[in-house]
Protein 1
Amino acid sequence: MSATIDTPPVEERERNLEEVETVTIRFAGDSGDGMQLTGTQFTNTSAVIGNDISTLPDFPAEIRAPAGSLPGVSGFQLNFSSRDIRTPGDQPNVLVAMNPAALKVNLSDLEDGGTIIVNTDEFNKENLKKAAYASNPLEDDTLKGYRIHRLPITTLNIRALQEAQVKLSRKEMDRCKNFFALGVLYWLYDRPMEGSLEWIKSKFAKLPEVARANEIALKTGYNFADTTEVFTTHYTVRKAVIAPGKYRKITGNEATAIGFVAASQLAGRPLFYGSYPITPASDILHELARHKNFGVKTFQAEDEIAAVCAAIGASFTGHIGLTGTSGPGVALKQEAIGLAVMTELPLVIINVQRGGPSTGLPTKTEQADLFQAVWGRNGECPAIVIAPATPADCFHMAIEAVRLAFKYMTPVFYLSDGYLANGAEPWRLPSIDELPKIEVKFADDPTNFLPYKRDEQTLSRPFALPGTPGLEHRVGGIEKQHETGNVNYDPENHHFMVLLRQAKVDRAAQDIPDVEIFGEKTGKVLVLGWGSTYGSITSAVEKLQEEGKSVSSAHLRHLNPFPSNLGEVLLGFERVIIPEMNLGQLATMIRAKYLVDAVAFSKVKGRPFQIREIVRKVEEYL
Amino acid sequence: MSTNGNGMNENKMDDALVDEGAGGGNVSGGGPSPESEPGSVVAGVPAPPPGKLTKADFTSDQEVRWCPGCGDYAILNNVQKVMPELGVPREKVVFVSGIGCSSRFPYYMNTYGFHSIHGRAPAVATGIKSSNPELSVWVITGDGDALSIGGNHFMHAIRRNLDINYILFNNRIYGLTKGQYSPTSEFGKKTKSTPMGVIDYPINPASLAIASEATFVARTIDIDVKHLGAVVNAAAHHKGVSFVEVYQNCNIFNDGAFDSFAERAVRAENVLYLEHGQPMIFGKNRDKAIRMNGTLPEVIQLGSETGLNETDALIHDAHERDPSVAFMLARMEHPNFPQPVGIFRDVQRETYEDLLAQQIETAIAQKGAGSLEKLINSGEMWTVE
């Protein structure tokens, strides 16, 4: 194979350029191979040239599992299209496998007849053994039926860098091979290299030799694909027809962080973020820590409990008290969240859900913390629960969380998940004046001031900040006397206060938008979802509707309380199917509240639903 | 139950003193008085004209519900008494507590207050002080609250050096849950949960605070009213975390825990009052002292018989940055040594909230004040026509 590089360039070689609508590529390699970076670069370039994109990074929980091993495989799936797409694609059309383990882990996902690009250099005896291959899959029948391109990427990369007399160690040069592979893919899908070249330049500004090496690797990969006979055809994907406007690519975690900074600006209150590092939420802490010039205070606490308690303390002084974590962290914070319910202070809790229970699957996605958010505390302890539907929606729902927390003086759960957090899509940038205003009112009049007196409309209590003369008062976790807020153990008062706190959260229903129906208002099947299943559900329902089927969908972004019109919406359909990455938590809530015989469609594999899985499920009920 | 009587009497006595002293408020004796230092600042708050507030201004309308005779009454009285001396307006004061008998404290102070959950008061206080450094923040906690369930927050809140006052009421027992042993209970102690004796080894709060990089560590005794007031006053004036351990008698579940040195009759003999710059002399006749013998402290008898005098005693240096001697002193215990009280350590280090504010200022200086427009419109963008 290594002879291929010596093939003299053929001038003006004619190649087939074929137009395709949608392509799904999965990049897979060792955790140390830079697959996340390669995937991200390809995504950025595709977004900038106008394709619609959706991504699904899939990385191991171990930072660097032994090189070449099965647990060490890291993957990044990208769906890019000239159509409006909502998911990272059911099945990859193309698999880039940098070693035998990557091939082994990902092959079963590849579509029948799909394309495989392998780095043949890594298919040696040792790596085959680590990947538990008894014989070399490149030489036996394993890959029968696939289109396979064999590239000695390691050798080609090293040779190109040696020829250019790059002054780096062999190990350092070897690290550039992901850019070689990226170059190959850029040629194969007719993408420009400029964006990535710029990125290399700025990323390695202080390491010019590393920058030069990566640049050479990228260009050599591109030219190699262009000038050799390995590929007979390359492909182009046109610009997508999507709503006009200015766009940027954004992941859910980025949108979440920016959304809370925006909420702080819109409310005119500083943001305090208390957090303890945890996968997959840590990137929110990293991102917020970069925005101190917005007055953002980030506090890396000693533990999850301190993180939420400090956020509550900050709320008490009138900051936007925010804490962020994943499921295990929420379990630790729940007592403190109960304190915020009792003291009726605004607080937002981000839960970037991951596979559970216990440590579970830290890097994989799941939606199994809905019950935990709605009911997971001691006593009757209601809180508002909302959930963004897409990575870009994370921005808008962050603002919504803060709006509701202040207006109803209550904790608000914001349920993201690993798929939203790390997945990316194009975000149409909003103008500032289309963002909602967040009204924050503080008490300042000592006349007849009572810390637990109620606003008639919202049932929330006045917000009197320390520092305000004449409004000195005490809050705490012991039951409060109605209006005075004094410690009170009277049975009638307790009964009353329990009902009052519930009624206050229920009142928020008057303040949230109706759930919208995608499709007809009545029909055979309604597919109801929440959170990150939005893309798969909507795409599946759209497909069925195109086939003339009587199917609609509705997606909940508010889960406690539910939108006021939900009961009526459910009654319009013969069947309600609820796909969830849990064992039917929303389905249970819907059944309990509306007495509707909803069907729970459960999947807990740490991966999002495929469109076709939902299509098949719905077809059973048509 | 002699302490009961003492406690109650002293409460009444304090009230009388405060009434007399209303306007002046200079009752505490000891520590630095803000009135004597014009422009003195507690927690960044400029002092208002002296003499404006009284103890009554800091007393809430809530009925105090501790057991009659509890040492908490004396501490509450003294804190209420010291508050007007600090010159901080009432609305700028926040008391934060956890769970336990002592943690009911904020309800009785007519300031802002936050009765939080078990062990977490330092974390709540961290959020309060970080987000509003102008507030004078007080953490009230007990030995179980601070050192058992809240042990982690104790260490981290202290090492961060927020400018908060952290008062630990140490009664060496769980009171609110009715008599189980605490992390400071003596080894072997028989309690409801340890009928055959405690087999946990107790922890020493002051030495733990020093080991946690505290910048101010003091100890006092509930019934030693004057000393308590002076220590609280000094703690309030220290910029940075001020940790104060108060030996507090629980007359129901652990009565007399500190009698062997704290009782009025034996106190002078058995307590060492640490004072910065002074030799460590104690005893009713001030005829005993502490000196170093190699790397360990020892008690020496002063006088003609031994030929030792004041100059042989160790001089207390609360401002020494090296915490070794303070640590050693914090671990001296009666009856082998006199029980030391007073300020073990009082050094300066930048506070967490100041450093946080500086980072924000630097970020604004470097990047300009945040613009929402720019925040949204950043990264790689493209336009769809």
Protein 2
Amino acid sequence: MTSAGPEIERLIQLLAKLPGLGPRSARRAVLHLLKKREVLMQPLAQALADADATVQACSICANLDVVDPCAVCASPARDPKILCVVQDVADVWALERASAFKGRYHVLGGVLSALDGVRPEDLNLATLAERAATAPVEEVILALPATVDGAATAHYVADRLAGLGVKVTSIARGVPVGGELDFLDDGTLAAALQSRRET
Amino acid sequence: MGDRPRRALTALRLAIFRNHAAVELALDRRMVALFGPNGAGKTNILEAVSLLAPGRGLRRAASEEIARRAGGAAAGAWAVSADLDLDGDVHRLGVGQDPAAPSRRLIRLNGAAASHADLGDLVRVTWLTPAQDRIFAGPRGERLKFFDRLVLGLSPGHGAAASRYERAMRERTKVLEEGGGDRAWLDGLEDEMAQRGGELALARAGLLDRLRAAIDARPSGAFPKSDLDLEGPIERLIADGAGLDAAVAELRARLFDARRRDARAGRALVGPHRTDFAARHRAKNMPAGDCSTGEQKALLVGLALAHGRALDAASGTAAPLLLLDEACAHLDEARRAALADELADLGVQAWLTGTDAGLFEAWGDRAQRFQVEEGAVREAQALA
């Protein structure tokens, strides 16, 4: 608690809810902002307002952008034959940073978890099935986390897409580039061996 | 000293750890004998060592319970740090309570933040505590946990596979509970359970073979030999020669068949979490659980020694640190002497506790001795 009045208290409370921030770091952040009003606090307030006014979820793939459909879905330079299914927008950003994928995305909005109350109807599965069943989509790549929930979701999605006439593939799991076998855990080594292929 | 033991702590430091405000032990890789009255804090020191390995330590305590209490409230965040010498390389390890989040732990390895799993490869620890004295007569789940901890000494990834298996199992139970019976979702969860479960069974079966070989390789000695078995359909299948793929397929099929039953029961009635680790006293030809407490203790000590030998023989894994809490309490003089010899022969850094220094006479100068009193630990000389 501070003795600085409800506005500052409210600001601290809200910042404390952000991932990675707690009450102590929120207090430090607020003081920092108040010391740098014109350089940081005001531009931040404006950026927040702008993002709130303009950012929306793409109605095709659920990616976030200021236009709908998003830039990826609308771009003719992106390969419409391949869809890459991911858990969240953060994964789209990661893959885009890597510039490794030239097709289009589909954001599920989470992974299945009965314990956390995420059921199939809570994910963007119906829209995925529609897109997969529609030309020109030929392949759906599953790029979901290698966790229990991610694996169960991948299995579920693959099942849902079976019979729609698309190839369903999964990204490889295993040895990271530049990685020495000695440093890897048993699970990764096992997965890497399992997904081996001919050279 | 030679190159044994291959894995040993050369220093141990505790801060705000149960009844020890600050303790520092300078060690020279010999075995460690801690003696002192009941309640002095000997087991606390063993617990501190056990917390260096992944898991909640030998008392399975939650982080908040450990910080020393001064007048009711915790007096700060607890911390354990140690220097570990593994095959000549010295590593600085640290595990402690996160001051900002009392239920969480901070881990450090050689000056950098690390995960507990990172320490898992370096710090392998096995322990025997009085709570386990009656493990053969007690609940199946406790015995299995004990056995899985032994497997961890050989395969550090076993713990991660077990966590994933349990998560998938809990998810499956919830999906079954909520009805709707989404087939594809259950298929996916059962696939994960089958993969991880198969790995668990394979790792367990592997250790069982090595334990049996280690037991049989020694002539009969002071510690009775046990006949060990894993009673579970998947482990059985592997013991009969099936490979991982066959084991996974079998488990997947069994889980599928069990859906309705498991939905009614509210839990999974089939799977490696239900395996029983069974032991028989070979010479007496009776289940270990039917033997006297003293005999059961002797069987357990024999098993711990066999485990050390099994790991030693297995692809050069250095034997784990062995924590034997009050192990000498039920052993007669002859068995204590045999224990000292076997541990020395095994070349492990064993940590032993007892109420009286006299219990460790047979160790001679093979063990460093420390007298533990409320709030203080001091090195003591061996009795002449």
